[in-house]
């Protein structure tokens, strides 16, 4: 389906061949064990036991794999996919490069778990500069990084990683596979949270990994079966159902983010505005060539925690909530979760509301919040 547009691919991704009497997307298959052929045993059907495999999950993996351009495995959460990759690939004595400004729980896992089992962890800012990759086993980048929204040139980094014998993994959560295709850019692996914009309805947790390397997919699949971090059939089905509208949701979210970025850029009472789609944003030169569309997430600073609370309280259309990429606009003051952002730092996730409504609401709420 590579000749078709994003919207068409999202609608058809992972669906079985049409058959009279069948639904478009088969409903969730709830099963722990399945009937086996008593003579042939477990080789008689792809379905034997629910931890290694499930038919609902297989369809979802086909859908995400089609959009990312690789073989996909889904996990219970994004955190399970990323920590599963790290633990499946890294051995004591290995060195891993992680983003200094990336998803906070992954950084915490690296220092709390990886370092204690003898893995050397090097934190590098997403925007660089990157050190020599000689002796590095795995480079994991997040681009755009959450929550700071810096980006890195994936094709250039893939080249230097491969020259040094390192693997490159890209966390594609913020961009989604419609925003960028890291495997096409030369990355060995994609990992992501499907909890965010990919499924986009704020009602499930999901993670995934995709790769064109059968060895890497095999290693991670074994890890997943051994540790059991699989999503349930209902969440897998709901995720697949939600992906049909990914193109539509991202289009509106991105348009809303562009309008809000314009609004905020014109206000003197908002500092530190970041959105990779703004031509004067430091991320723009790389983002505008590497990304196929801009994310619906932007970040800025309102000075202090109290002003953030006044802003969110005054807004009718901005929910106080963490996570991002959902249909409802939400704002998160990241410092409340203990990450290393400043007290007034806000990550705003634009939903799919009408652009004019959102711009008017946010402008009025900033006015009502007053100065810091
Ligand atoms: C949310 C997020 C994760 C973790 O995903 P969960 O589904 O919450 O476990 C990983 N990476 C990034 C960039 C995220 O935003």
UniProtKB/TrEMBL annotation:
Keywords: Lyase, Pyridoxal phosphate. GO terms for molecular function: cystathionine gamma-lyase activity; pyridoxal phosphate binding. It is an enzyme of class 4 (lyase). GO terms for biological process: cysteine biosynthetic process via cystathionine; transsulfuration. SUPFAM superfamilies: PLP-dependent transferases. Belongs to the trans-sulfuration enzymes family. This is Cystathionine gamma-lyase. It comes from Micromonospora profundi.
